[in-house]
Amino acid sequence: MKKIAIVEDDVFMREEIVSILQKASYGTECITDFQSPVDCIMAADPDLVILDMNLPRISGFRVCRMLRQKSTVPVLVLTSRDQLKDELDALSLGADEYLTKPCHSERLLARIANLLRRFEDRKYLLEYGDMRLDVRTYTLESRGVSLILPENQGKMMEMLLAGQGELVTRQVLFMKLWGTTDYVDENALQVNMTRLKRNLARLNLQDRIMTVRGEGYRLRKAEEWDDVSE
Question: Structure pTM?
Fold first, then answer.
């Protein structure tokens, strides 16, 4: 059963959406904490999010932007804001659909079904800049060229992409590769990292992994590397 998170502060509207979804055999999770809604959404781990723009304490636009920084879950905006600018702003922040209230239940369900079909595989993809990894096969793709990474290299790339440019510590990589931080030869990590960098160079992605001395590694985008090189 697909689960849909509903971020809506109007009680009557929220209950109506829940009723529509449950009759269509969807599971529902209502997000009513509007101080940290993104954390609640991430904890719920839904297959799709229905998001109102007019929320207390936090703008729906901000929720959309923050959510997109952490997740690829499809976002359907359902709001009373019917201005073209609002729709364009929401879509530019990462929303996948934009519907205005009142919305016929059949139209809502059709858009939900369409989004779920479109993004069935997206939960297996990690993206950062021009790099994308399918974690099922560890296929790394950039600018139309792809390469299947060996398992250990794929696991390291998975953690780096999940970090979205933030530091990934050696301890995190140890756990991902070997399930422990005890008695691990750091040379083994360095050997695997060297091989990963070599494969990235084959996709013209050289110098994208930055070593943070004594701590770990992080990814950088092409434009970040260009700025450093100038």
Answer: 0.61
